[in-house]
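Batch manifest, entry 17 of 40.
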Amino acid sequence: MRLKILIIRFIFSSILVASALAIHSQAIDQQLWFDYVLTIPGKNKLSYGGDVGIRGFYSNVDWNQFYFRPIVRYRINPIFGISGSLATFNTFNQINLDVHEFRITEDLNISWPDLNVLSLVYRVRLEQRFFFYEGGGNSQKLRGRLLLGAETRNFKWFSDKRSFFFQASWEGFQNIGSESAYEIFINQVRIDAAFGHRLSKNIRYELHYIWQSSRLFSDDGLQTTQNIIRIRFYHKLVKKK
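Output type: structure tokens
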């Protein structure tokens, strides 16, 4: 009983924080994101895969974004891991220029401590971003990201085979250097609360509510927020023996 109370408090705290921020800010955009995430186990602590997705459905701002991101991961030990990716983000809108971005990222992932019921996670990400605009022109930008989060252990209250879990995170974005680039949403802060459900050992889905603070078009543009529903489908291929 005490464990269930702790989990319920964790969930409602995350929801209340996100709701309070949404009420006290200028929310102009409601978005729906879909992602498919593939993981292929490799040898010597390596894994491969990536994710692909589309964003912007039901948005008040008339835009849509498609992305494709291959990833390589290396697990150093149970606490530390690193990864790198190459990605394309293609943004299409009817108000301003279409933007095509090529992105290189490097991640340091930390999972510690494990509190049995809850584990804390951290991620430091560096992104080299190259923008190409409809009609010509290009620019580039270097961005850092810091994520602080928590994930519960798997719970089997309703089924021994189909467990579920909860997540919550805060992520900050910071441009590095003096370079500027045109974007529709220049992210600043992202707060995420999620429910995850494991359908099998290798397949799960996650339902996320995200509150996001951004600037429009430039680093000194209008301060806005986005309310986002994100649906993520995870697939891990079975490693051949």
